[in-house]
Write a structure and sequence with these properties.
With about 170 residues, the protein is mainly alpha-helical. The protein has six helices and two strands; from the N terminus they run ααααββαα. Helices cover about 70% and strands about 5% of the residues. Strands 1-2 form a two-stranded antiparallel sheet. Helix 1 runs parallel beside helix 4 (about 80-100) and helix 4 (about 80-100) packs across helix 6 (about 150-160).
């Protein structure tokens, strides 16, 4: 891919990751398990615990990828290979961890994407704050998924053809 395209993609990715990190940090810093589950419902407590665990995981991956992408943008000479690797890691770690969370508290139902309805379906009915946050994050990660779709398969194929271990 041309240097200017990769650099532009890094700038877009950096901005979207920063937006996601800000939303995640705000939510994680202002909400606790007891605030989300004031009724002390055991099944909802497990759901919220799993959800918060997934958010913390996503937050860490997002911050690491944000730093890697940002590092490439700050260097005096832009290194395309390192930037492409950082973009692949962003797709693999951040986008995939959002749309396929470890604890499966929610999932994406593609049938709803074409109807204008929210494609995110929760395992249990969450609080309004969790629903709103997840839908806001889905918009951010949807943009990243569309922008970085190339890195899902073509990047790996290209590296393997060059004899690199990925």
């Amino acid at each position: 891919m041309a240097v200017y395209k990769v650099q532009s993609l890094c700038e877009t990715t950096s901005a979207k990751l920063k937006e996601a990190i800000q939303k995640l940090e705000l939510f994680l810093n202002t909400n606790s398990l007891t605030q989300l589950n004031p009724e002390q419902d055991a099944s909802m407590e497990e759901f919220y615990r799993d959800y918060l665990s997934d958010l913390r995981r996503l937050s860490v991956f997002s911050e690491v990828c944000y730093e890697k992408v940002g590092l490439n943008l700050r260097r005096p000479s832009f290194n395309v290979d390192q930037a492409e690797k950082a973009l692949y890691e962003t797709y693999h770690n951040c986008v995939n961890n959002f749309f396929y969370p470890k604890n499966e508290c929610y999932s994406e139902d593609g049938r709803y994407a074409y109807t204008g309805q929210d494609a995110i379906r929760f395992r249990k009915k969450p609080s309004r704050e969790i629903r709103d946050l997840t839908l806001e994050l889905s918009k951010v990660f949807e943009v990243l998924r569309e922008e970085l779709a190339y890195y899902e398969t073509d990047y790996i194929t290209q590296r393997r053809m060059q004899g690199e271990k990925v």
